[in-house]
Each structure stands twice: as structure tokens, then as C-alpha cells.
Automatic annotation (TrEMBL):
GO molecular function, one term: proton-transporting ATP synthase activity, rotational mechanism
The protein's name: ATP synthase subunit a
Superkingdom classification of source: Eukaryota
Subcellular localization: Mitochondrion inner membrane
Keyword Ubl conjugation set for record: no
Origin species: Eudocimus ruber
Gene3D superfamilies from the UniProt entry: ATP synthase, F0 complex, subunit A (1.20.120.220)
Residue intervals passing through the bilayer: 12-31, 69-89, 101-118, 138-158, 170-190, 196-223
Gene this chain is encoded by: ATP6
Main location: mitochondrion
Membrane topology: Multi-pass membrane protein
One of the Pfam families matching this protein, by short name: ATP-synt_A
GO CC terms of this entry: mitochondrial inner membrane; proton-transporting ATP synthase complex
Subunit-structure text: Component of the ATP synthase complex composed at least of ATP5F1A/subunit alpha, ATP5F1B/subunit beta, ATP5MC1/subunit c (homooctomer), MT-ATP6/subunit a, MT-ATP8/subunit 8, ATP5ME/subunit e, ATP5MF/subunit f, ATP5MG/subunit g, ATP5MK/subunit k, ATP5MJ/subunit j, ATP5F1C/subunit gamma, ATP5F1D/subunit delta, ATP5F1E/subunit epsilon, ATP5PF/subunit F6, ATP5PB/subunit b, ATP5PD/subunit d, ATP5PO/subunit OSCP.
């Protein structure tokens, strides 16, 4: 059976049942389970320190009213981070390469931040659509432009995450295929491409972490505008 490079982004199925939900729930098995002791082992201590660091970084741009979102934003950050990193392992499926899933995460959270602003401070939230001191003839055009930029935010969040991860996975597969094909023909070139593949894999690990952080950081900035 001939496989294309994009078959790796197809959701796996078993007996006709999509397994994407299982791939979403699996990262939760890596999280520490609550116990009756403060410290259970070194791994749980490292994980708790990491969660505290993430929460601290995400809450810096927010005031006290935005700290209510700390649990949701930190949980989303950890979920995206674990899914992105586990998706770099061989023979695994990365759910965050699906635009539908990323939009399902981005749109409700963006809408929640927007509705929060319209409920708590409607005049300030609507004031973002028209900068102060705008000439009168430019008011309709600027309102249209600002409204479009506001509505395109969830699409930008989902497309950014999908495009970066999809491009990285495709590059890794292309270079690994070239390395395997060149090994019996030109071993020296194959070794060179293998070293490039190693560097690209390290880069993709960084991209997976950065994209998860950027996704949640932009949501926190959208929240800050509305509280």
C-alpha cells in the first residue's frame, strides 16, 4: 500500500472508531495523582515545580481579576505541551496537527474573554474598535478593520499552532526518508542528512514547547484586554 506524507495526520481508527479521544486522554496519565503526602517522589516534585513556573509566567500580564483563570490556562498549557511533545515520538499521532481541534480550543476561550469584557466593561471593550483621535472620515473604515482583526483572532490561534506543527512533522519525515534512501547509495551524504535530522528534531522539540506557550500566552493577553 502506497502511503503519502500526509497520512501521518490522519486520525487513527480501530474498528471504525476514531482514536483521537484516546490520544487526548493519554497525556493525563503522565500527571501526578493526588495523595495524602506533600511530596511523593522526585518526579512529582519536578512536575509541581514546573506547574508553578508555568502559572507564574502566565499570570504576570494579568491583574488579580484574571487570576481566576489560572487553573484553566495552566491546564491548557500542560495539555498542549504534553500532546505536542508526545507527538514527536515515532509511530504516534499528534491531535494538535488537526485544525478542527485547535479551533475547538481557540474559539470558545476567545469568545469567553470577549464576553467577559462586554459584561464587565462594555464601553472600554467596544472602545478598542475605534482608536482615540481618529479623523471622522476614517471612522467607518477603522471600525470595520478593527472588527475584522478582532474576529480573526481565534482563526489565527488555531492556524498558527496547526501550521507550525504540521510543517515540522513534514520536514522530519522528508529528511528521514532521504536519509534512509541515501544510505545504500551515498553513505557520507546519508550521515550528513542524519545529523541535520538530529538538529531538526531538537528544533522541533523547542517549537512544540514554544507554540504551546504562545497559544496560551495570547489567550491571557486577550483576557487582559477585557478585564
Amino acid at each position: 500500500m502506497n502511503l503519502s506524507f500526509f497520512d501521518q495526520f490522519t486520525s487513527p481508527c480501530l474498528l471504525g472508531i476514531p482514536l483521537i479521544l484516546l490520544s487526548l486522554l493519554f497525556p493525563t496519565l503522565l500527571l501526578p495523582t493526588p495523595g495524602n503526602r506533600w511530596i511523593t517522589n522526585r518526579l512529582s516534585t519536578l512536575q509541581l515545580w514546573f506547574f508553578h513556573l508555568i502559572t507564574k509566567q502566565l499570570m504576570i500580564p494579568l491583574n488579580k481579576a484574571g487570576h481566576k483563570w489560572a487553573l484553566m490556562l495552566t491546564s491548557l498549557m500542560v495539555l498542549l505541551l504534553t500532546i505536542n511533545l508526545l507527538g514527536l515520538l515515532p509511530y504516534t499521532f499528534t491531535p494538535t496537527t488537526q485544525l478542527s481541534m485547535n479551533m475547538a480550543l481557540a474559539f470558545p476561550l476567545w469568545l469567553a474573554t470577549l464576553l467577559t469584557g462586554l459584561r464587565n466593561q462594555p464601553s472600554i471593550s467596544l472602545g478598542h474598535l475605534l482608536p482615540e483621535g481618529t479623523p471622522t472620515p476614517l471612522i467607518p473604515a477603522l471600525i470595520l478593520i478593527e472588527t475584522t482583526s478582532l474576529l480573526i483572532r481565534p482563526l489565527a490561534l488555531g492556524v498558527r499552532l496547526t501550521a507550525n506543527l504540521t510543517a515540522g512533522h513534514l520536514l522530519i519525515q522528508l529528511i528521514s526518508t532521504a536519509t534512509t534512501a541515501l544510505l545504500p547509495i551515498m553513505p557520507a551524504v546519508s550521515i550528513l542528512t542524519a545529523s541535520i535530522l538530529l538538529l531538526l528534531t531538537i528544533l522541533e522539540v523547542a517549537v512544540a514547547m514554544i507554540q504551546a506557550y504562545v497559544f496560551v500566552l495570547l489567550l491571557s493577553l486577550y483576557l487582559q484586554e477585557n478585564i
